[in-house]
Amino acid sequence: MVDSDLKKVAQNFSAVYPIMEDAGRRRIKGLKVASILSDAIGDKPVNTLLDIGCSNALLLDVVTEQLAPEFAVGIDMDS
C-alpha cells in the first residue's frame, strides 16, 4: 500500500466506522481500558500515557481522567 493510499484510508476511517464518534460508547470503552490498565499497574503512579492511533482521542480523555497521569499524548495520522 502506498503512503497516499494509507492516508486516504485513515482520513475516511471515521466515515466508515461512525461508532468512533459516539462519545457515550467511547466513554464506556475508555472506562474498561482504564480499569484493565489500573489492574495491571497496581499502586504505581502513572507518569505518561501514549495512545498511538488515537483517532479523535475520546478514549484517551477518559483513560486520562481515570488514571491521572502527569503527561498524556495521542498520536494519529489525521492529527
Written description of the protein model:
Helices cover 53% and strands 13% of the residues. The protein is globular. It has a two-stranded parallel sheet with strand order 1-2. The protein has 79 residues and is α+β, with helices and mostly antiparallel strands. The protein has helices at residues 3-11, 13-16, 23-41, 58-67, and strands spanning 48-52, 71-75. Helix 4 (58-67) links the parallel strand 1 and strand 2. Helix 3 (23-41) packs across helix 4 (58-67).
Termini distance? 20 Å
In DSSP terms (H or I, runs of 4 or more residues), the helix count works out at 4
Strand content range: 5-15%
Classify the secondary structure makeup into a structural class: alpha+beta
Q: Which consecutive residue ranges, at least 5 long each, have pLDDT under 50?
A: none
Mean pLDDT, as a whole number? 86
Shape: globular
State the major sheet: 2 strands, parallel
What portion of residues is helical?
Answer: 40-55%
**How many beta-strand segments?**
2
* Order of adjacent strands in the largest pleated sheet: 1-2
Using only C-alpha atoms, the radius of gyration works out to 14 Å
In N-to-C order, the SSE pattern is: HHHEHE
